[in-house]
Amino acid sequence: MQNVSSTKGNHLCITSLMKNRNSITKLNAMKTNVCSICKKEIVPPPNNCGTGFGVTKDAAIVCYSCCGEQDKKQLLETGIFRGYYSKGCFSNWPGSFKVNVYSSKQSYHNFCGRNGRTDFWFTLEGQNFHGVHIGSNNDCATVKRVKK
Asked: Are 13 and 22 spatial neighbours (Cβ–Cβ below 8 Å)?
């Protein structure tokens, strides 16, 4: 589930929900939510951190599990994804899609200074990816498919 502005396609985007206050009110008023992909009832996480679902551009409700599957599919198909880098792991917003990083390197960045840029690399289903994370006050990162 991407929480960053989307580029192309019909991938999932939590920011679309945040921009549409009417949708939030309608979704919160519903007693039960059902995932539009797996058709299972959505139960919010026990720690009260999140809703347990994301919303597509066409207002379909999707559980965190299916969000992870859709985000992985998008990464493999398009070769680009905006997500989160933290503690040697790249993930989507709810953490239902995670990949361990096998190498990382810090370097200078013109706005963030010394060690302000982190480059990292991982492999997913035989494909190689390179990611860039800028700054220390956020976890946002962008990854792209690379040739070996």
From this structure: no
- Alpha-carbon distance of 47 to 64, in angstroms, equals 15
How many structural domains compose the chain? Answer: 2
Q: Residue 5: inside a domain, yes or no?
A: no
pLDDT for the residue 33: 87
The average pLDDT across 120-147 equals 89
> Six-digit token pair at 125?
């289903």
**pLDDT of 28-49, one tens digit each?**
544 578 999 999 998 887 776 7
Classified as helix, coil or strand, 41 is strand
Bridge partners, residue 119, by sequence: 105, 132
Residues 20, 69, single domain; the answer is yes
pLDDT value of residue 23:
55
Ranges of beta strands (E only) in 35-88 are 41-42, 53-55, 61-63, 80-86
